[in-house]
Amino acid sequence: MTVDIGETIVGLEIHVQLATATKLFCGCSTDYQDDGPNTHCCPVCLGLPGALPHVNRKAVEYGLKVAKALDMRVPEESEFARKNYFYPDLAKAYQITQSDKPLAVEGTVEIEDDEGHEKIVRITRAHLEEDPGRLVHVGGGSKYSLVDYNRSGIPLLEIVTEPDMRSPQEARRFLNKLRTILEYLGVFDGEREGGLRVDANISMRGSERVEVKNISSYKGVEKALTFEVTRQRNLLRRGQKVARETRHFMEGRGITTSARSKEEAHDYRYFPDPDLGPIRVTGWLAGIDLPELPTARKNRFMAQYGISLNHARTLTGDPRLADFYEHVAHIEPVLAATWVADTLLGELNYRNMGIAAVPAEQIIELLALLRSEAITDRAGVQVLREMLDACAAGKPCEAPAAIVEREGLARVVGDDFTPIVQAVVAANPQAVEDYRAGKKGALNFLVGQVMKETRGRADPRELGRIVSEYIDTGGV
Amino acid sequence: MAGTLKFSPDDRCNAFITTCAEAPFGEGVLAGTAVAVKDNISTAGIQTTCGSKILEGYVPPYDAHVVELLRRAGAAIVGKTNMDEFGMGSTTETSAFGPTKNPVDLERVPGGSSGGSAAAVAAGLVSMALGSDTGGSIRCPAAFTGIVGLKPTYGRVSRYGLIACANSLEQIGPMARTVEDASRLMSVIAHHDPRDVTMLDRPYDHQPVAGVRGLRIGIPEEFFGEGVDPRVAEKVRDAIGVLEGLGAETVRVSIPGMQYALAAYYVICTSEASSNLARFDGVRYGPAVDTRKSWHEAYQDLRRELLGAEVRRRIMLGTFALSAGYAGDYYTKAQAARRKIQEDFERVLRETDVIAGPTMPTVAFRLGEKTDPVSMYLSDILTAPANLAGIPAISVPCGRVDGLPVGLQIMGRRFEDERVIDAAYTYEQEVRA
Q: Less CB within 10 Å around the terminal CB: N or C of chain A?
């Protein structure tokens, strides 16, 4: 018996920490990552009795930037509301958020679907709210937990999508795209831990919907959703029902578990926060300039530099990488694209390094050496590795030319090879026979032997020509 | 001229929760003047309890804006005055620190919730005090103890540091023996504070001026209707007659929205309060929580034990009024009623310059007399409308009934606190002369 299971439907709620210098409702610095607990607090974000919130203009501007980039509509008036619930990390026992009147509504993000076609994910709304504090569980069977209010009051932008995604992979691509846009806008620090947190709604069409709460890494979203697809499909396949519920994602184990229903039975008693007036900011929109966004930049890269779609997509996937590429592209755009998007990125990932750590001037020099064929590709990779290893170790980065000099990596050309070719041919008479008998592999073997002797300083194609000519012209 | 003021009052009325035996003061317009501060206004380094057990021992690390201004003006803050717990009451009997008594008659309540501030002024322990007024909490005790109390226009005085009962209704205001002193204190505390975004930059800088010639005074029939002691009404009519004698015109007006005022007031006030008071959960205020229990159980136990009956009643009312399925019938309707009342006052204040009537329907009650919460709530009927409308309102003494003070209430247009002060000053100067 086969059971007809509907397609996967995914909608997301994304909480983005906005990278403002100060908190949403007070002047406390948001830069607490390297400091001890409860060091970035004041009466307002501690929720001390009598303290009053006032809205950080910058946070509203950042919200509007996102609204504009996602092509959203900004209503004439929005307002802050109180979401009332008890939790030990919530200083005031209510969170200031936006409910009936969000900052922005009705936007779109373009992604690729699973077949590689472009598709639109609709954005329902985006609203501002404050992050709560953070519970620190001491562990070891301790009788208490500690509360750190450094995070309390950090501005969040909650972005809610329509249920427009059809697979965990689409959800991942959506998040990647959104994250890239946010980074382009300069409103979000992708490096910050917990800077992007996701609640995902997932169902099989025709069945109940499950909310997976608080997935704290965006890579976790695909994992959590993949687990849910399997779980829900298995239930349906066995003729069971999917329960409408909230589930938690256990990052370490890659599974979701049912949240106790007690935690779901919330009545948040939203009402407009009487301490904050209405927000009327449609007039600000005209003054908000957007940078070139990822899609536009990708298209420009292909047109301006003549590089492939794949390279353009990779390079524009991170604004810092795209900036880096544009900085070094003038040497030779296509060569630069290959080296940055493929070789450099691979080496960086291997070392867990960011593009920011790479000295652009040295890469320009390396690209120049490659363009002029002063070194081979293989030698280029070796030079790059030496440079990155030095950077990673915090040592001063040697100039590529110096590395070439020190390691003797300069490309060897023409007659310089003759003695080596002579020696290799003399030492491998059987291979020479085979070559003469028309076996192609024999030439490759001989070239490989010469490459070995030259330690990569020669271009294999050129070497092939030299070796074959040497044998053909009867050098032996 | 800075120094220290020694303060050891003979506080037989229980006006103070905390006194400062040696109160430092500086230079300025209030240099060395003893000022009492209601115990819901944050004072750095001085315990601030809101009259509640749950805040006993809480010492704010910061000053309310008005307290900063008082200190800057040289005032000596000599103590924190008793109040109904979190401002919830009209008699100062719901305080966890025992009731305050009325200096005029120790068997009577001083009114509330700023009863401690009123009693401290009326008993002569200080010449001026700060109160706060959510639905009459300055004017009621001013009327009951025979002093002057002003509820400023909403948005005229910063609420920063005022421990909120109902944010959209309340203002800090001056209480004093004379209109002149009340005005003087008002000019110290009414300065713009960007931390309170519900206030406007409209500082009060005014010397009271006597004279009401041509002033149009609206007399709303609703302020002299059922429930108002006829002898109180008569005293107030006499006082208005005094102003007429000085050249004011009276106009009979009507504020039909008044019929919804108390219901709207109590729904809005309790809704906001239920949210404001939720933070008092034992994590950071009150005694240590029993850690053998789960946190929600510990919260429940602590709040049940440390919050008084009236506070718990109002939290429950407000929680209900905001809850899913009921908010539309209560909270939303109350806001609609509030807008109606605001419109009524705006309309009347287009035809008239001020509105006058009694502050309280009766004179001060006996201690323990009001046991039924609803009859207590009804006593706010003449004061709460000004809070709903956000307009300035003053209570100035206008004679006595059975030896107990009666207050004349004068209300005005938004941000015309000066006009209200001047009208009260004119009356006060005339009857004093």
A: N
From chain B, pick out residues whose CB is under 8 angstroms from the CB of A271: 271, 275, 322, 327, 331
Asked, for residue B192, whether it belongs to a domain, the answer is yes
Concatenating the DSSP letter of every residue in A297-325 gives HHHHHHHHH---HHHHHHHHTSHHHHHHH
What proportion of chain A, given as a percentage, has pLDDT over 90? Answer: 56
Asked whether the predicted pLDDT for residue A262 surpasses 60, the reply is: no
Boundary-marking domain end, from A385, A407, A429 = A407
More confident residue, B25 or B2: B25
Are B163 and B40 in contact by the 8 Å Cβ rule? The answer is yes
Q: Which residues of A touch B296 (CB under 8 A)?
A: 86
Is residue B8 domain-resident? no
Query: What pTM value is reported for the model?
Result: 0.89
Determine the residue type at A264.
E
pLDDT confidence of residue A63: 97
Q: What is the DSSP string of A423-434?
A: HHHHH-HHHHHH
Annotated catalytic, B137? Answer: yes
For residue B188, which of B206, B161, B165 has the smallest C-alpha distance? B206
Per-residue pLDDT, A123: 98
Same domain, A215 and A345: no
Q: Is A387 helix (H, G, I), strand (E, B) or coil?
A: helix
Interchain pair A275, B198: CB under 8 A = yes
Residue B433 has pLDDT above 80, yes or no: no
Asked whether residue A390 falls in the same domain as residue A440, the answer is no
| DSSP code string of B274-327 | HHHGGG-SSSSSSSPP-TTS-HHHHHHHHHHHHS-HHHHHHHHHHHHHHSTTTT
Q: Which of B198, B339, B347 is nearest to B268 (CA)?
A: B339
Chain B nearest CA to A93, separation (Å): 5
Same domain? For A190 and A73 the reply is: yes
- Partner-chain residue, chosen from A43, A50, A86, that has the shortest CB–CB distance to B281: A86
Query: Are A26 and A115 in a shared domain?
Result: yes
Phi-psi bin for B98: left (phi > 0), alpha (psi -120 to 50), beta? left
Question: Within 10 A of A286 (CB to CB), how many other CB atoms are there?
Answer: 7
Residue B85 has pLDDT above 70, yes or no: yes
Q: Which of A58-62, B206-210, B286-290 has the lowest mean pLDDT?
A: B286-290
Q: Which domain holds residue A333?
A: 294-407
Residue B407 within any structural domain of the chain: yes
Structure tokens at A38: 């409860």
Total domains in chain B come to 1
Tell me whether residue A167 is in a domain: yes
A257 within domain boundaries = yes
The torsion angle over the Cα atoms of residues A295, A300, A305 and A306, rounded to 10 degrees, is 80
pLDDT at residue A252 tops 80: yes
Beta carbons of A91 and B279 less than 8 Å apart: yes
DSSP classification of residue A222? H
Residue A355 belongs to some domain of the structure: yes
Residue where a domain terminates, one of A287, A321, A339: A287
pLDDT digits (tens, 9 = 90+) for B254-306: 999 999 999 999 999 999 999 999 999 888 888 776 667 888 888 888 898 99
Chain B contact probe: residue of A271, A273, A276, A280 with most B CBs at under 10 A: A271
Q: What is the CATH number of the domain that holds B47?
A: 3.90.1300.10
Express each pLDDT in A342-381 by its tens digit. Answer: 999 998 888 888 888 888 888 998 888 888 888 888 888 8
Q: How many domains does chain A have?
A: 3
Three-state SS at B64: coil
Given this model, what pLDDT does residue A293 score? 92
Q: Tell me the pairing of strands A210-215 and A245-250.
A: parallel
Per-residue confidence (pLDDT) for residue A380, from 0 to 100? 87
CA B248: distance to chain centroid? 28
What domain range is B276 assigned to? 13-433
For A435-476, write each residue's pLDDT tens digit: 888 887 888 888 888 888 777 777 777 778 778 878 877 664
